[in-house]
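Structure first, sequence second, as always.
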């Protein structure tokens, strides 16, 4: 039996469709720099340009997830490229976890506690998202994370 090669896909998204969009170029470069530091070969880049509406973006993200197969790796610049909604992020991360998709964030080094994560600007929101992602990487279920966060309020 021939085994399928596990793929590494990179994903970038911008809401503005201007040619030569700097943000798209920055995301691409951040991902490439990250992959080089980690000695990862990227098989393909998937870029979504000019999409910001929640419903439309949600469909595009679902299409991306359908492309991914067990064991594949998805590299993104930061989680805000998938969604800025914590609820949507947790749902998407749960789907990726269930499909056994490896998620790597070019903007996040889990040993760098001073880094403001995932494109979120508010300190309090950033610390919550950072906590969620660290616990996810440690293997906590989303239910356990939610219970912990609710108990801390």
């Amino acid at each position: 039996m021939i085994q399928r090669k596990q793929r590494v896909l990179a994903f970038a998204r911008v809401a503005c469709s201007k040619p030569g969009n700097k943000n798209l170029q920055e995301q691409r470069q951040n991902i490439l720099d990250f992959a080089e530091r980690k000695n990862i070969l990227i098989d393909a880049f998937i870029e979504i340009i000019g999409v910001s509406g929640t419903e439309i973006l949600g469909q595009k993200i679902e299409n991306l997830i359908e492309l991914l197969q067990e064991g594949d790796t998805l590299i993104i610049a930061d989680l805000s490229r998938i969604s800025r909604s914590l609820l949507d992020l947790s749902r998407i991360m749960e789907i990726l976890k269930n499909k056994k998709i490896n998620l790597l964030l070019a903007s996040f080094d889990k040993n760098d506690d001073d880094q403001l994560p995932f494109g979120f600007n508010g300190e309090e929101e950033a610390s919550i998202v950072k906590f969620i992602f660290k616990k996810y990487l440690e293997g906590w279920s989303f239910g356990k994370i939610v219970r912990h966060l609710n108990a801390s309020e």
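Margin note: The domain at 8-111 is CATH 3.40.50.1390 (Rossmann fold).
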